[in-house]
Amino acid sequence: MSEEQHQPSTVAAATPADHIVGEELLVDSSTDSDSTFGDAVDSTTTSLASSVTNYRYEHGRRYHGIEDGRYSLPNDEAEVDRLNLQHRVWEIALNGHLYVAPIDHDSLNEVLDVGCGTGVWCIEFADAHPGVQVLGTDLSPIQPHNVPANCQFIVDDANDDWVYGERFDFIHTRTLLLGVKDWKKVMKQAFDSLKPGGWIELHEFHIPIACDDGSAGPDSAAMKWGNSMYEGFQKFGVDSMATAKFREYLAEAGFGDIRETHTKFPLGPWPRGDKEKAMGALFQKDIGDNLHGLSVKTLTQGLGWSTEEVESFLPQAKADMYNPQIHTYFPIDIFWARKPR
């Protein structure tokens, strides 16, 4: 990303964007303890049609059965747990807010969450806005049965043509990066699916991971993991650094009032600050404890590693992520923009 793109934008007073975790993480040298934030993960079961549950099983994990190769991460119960845990990291980072755009609550009628995963964001948004219809879409039907009456889930691929029409007041995406091959198309379709004056908001990490203080050198297992994953995603046609072009794509699609801010999700409770420690402990568990499921397909099918090479390497990368002397993090980019009236 260019330096200009990494500068946090100026946001209007009293918006949630003023209260997210800042971009700077300071190492806490006073303790190496592993603080925790609690275990708030609940497994869920799907309420969608069985016709889309023709799953594939590889490397001991379950994957979606829609259009092979579109998405490289699992969709089984372990992944459901991981995604719900990850939602808590975002919850801490945003101080309990579900979005940062200055949307007008009184004008909200329909909201779309693209790539909704377990549906937890949709459910919480629907609970908070009972008069708003919330639609969540995802490749996999892993959402729960019991949802608010104003919340609905459908199986859909964000890469395909959208057929919603100009109906939504707010469109949200989070960690959709690994499932999208053409962000320009997605943003244009989002623009066409928003009513005039509606907002889009995109919350994304990017890979490779980073380290600011040199505690993880370029030859460390953690940094090798990040770089290898980036290369593997490229083989699948996915750019895990695509956020560098989000402002450009949003403008090309027709959006105005484009804003952005940036933060970091630490891999471990190594930073100073209670909030940062809580985020780091959860995110360490989210990524480190699920490294095999997150990595095996990308490294084997994307880069051609043998199963033996993967099984030998991943414990080394996990050890780095759990080493309190190594201070790595995922860069996080948040964009929000408005369709002109």
Descriptive key words:
S-adenosyl-L-methionine-dependent methyltransferase, two-stranded antiparallel ribbon, Rossmann fold, alpha/beta, eight-stranded mixed beta sheet, 341 residues
How would the blueprint of this fold be written?
Layout: E1 56-58, E2 61-63, H1 77-93, E3 110-114, H2 120-128, E4 133-138, E5 151-155, E6 168-174, H3 183-193, E7 194-205, E8 210-211, H4 221-235, H5 246-253, E9 256-266, H6 274-288, H7 291-302, H8 307-321, E10 328-338
Parallel strand pairs: 3-4, 3-6, 4-5, 6-7
Antiparallel strand pairs: 1-2, 7-10, 8-10, 9-10
Structure explained in plain terms:
By secondary structure, the protein is an alpha/beta fold. It has one domain (42-338): 3-Layer(aba) Sandwich (Rossmann fold), CATH 3.40.50. Helix content is 30%, strand content 19%. The longest helix has 17 residues, at 77-93. It is globular and about 50 Å long. The two termini are 30 Å apart.
In short:
This protein has 341 residues and is α/β, with parallel strands linked by helices. It has helices at residues 77-93, 120-128, 183-193, 221-235, 246-253, 274-288, 291-302, 307-321; strands at 56-58, 61-63, 110-114, 133-138, 151-155, 168-174, 194-205, 210-211, 256-266, 328-338. It is built from 8 helices and 10 strands.
